[in-house]
Amino acid sequence: MPRPDIPRTDHAATAxxxxxxxxxxxxxxxxxxxxxxxxxxxxxxxxxxxxDQDKLRAFMGMYNDLMLADxxxxxxxxxxxxxxxxxxxxCLYCLTAHGAxxxxxxxxxxxxxALIYNYRTLDLEPRQRAMLDFAHLLTVSPETVAEADxxxxxxxxxxxxxxxxxxxxxxxFNMSNRMASAVDMRPNPEYHAMAR
Length: 196
Hints:
Elements lengths: L25 H14 L4 H6 L3 H16 L6 H15 L2 H15 L2 H9 L8 H15 L6 H9 L4 H24 L13
């Protein structure tokens, strides 16, 4: 049985009939509890993956490494990439969840909403503009990425490790967006009101 202090949702996390694991291993149970403590919810993406604890661990490991580990990119910049990629892919789940993170980290709800709509309308620092242009290019025309595109990032102040991180975050969210669309992953309703 799930822990009584980790409430289950009253709606499905996806359109698939893959039941959430009834008994998470201790490490995953602790992670869900930490999410509940810090966010006030367990993200539906975690619930969606919880039908297979190995898949859940793999997803969490990659996400935590890309979005939370040390990087030359700030957490806000990584969330901005997630939103720009998800906007191009029209991924409701990621736009809702990561749009909330952009609002929270930037302290600016209008900025977060405009980023979701069209990042090109914003008055961004040249570094952030170059980063988002590259993430967008990697999303819409990955086969056209060339050395000149990487050099544009270097000219904006990114080192090669940063370029790896930009690419990895953009690639991860392209995969995540497609998975979320394929299974009709539903955002937690609480995300809509966060940081407003």
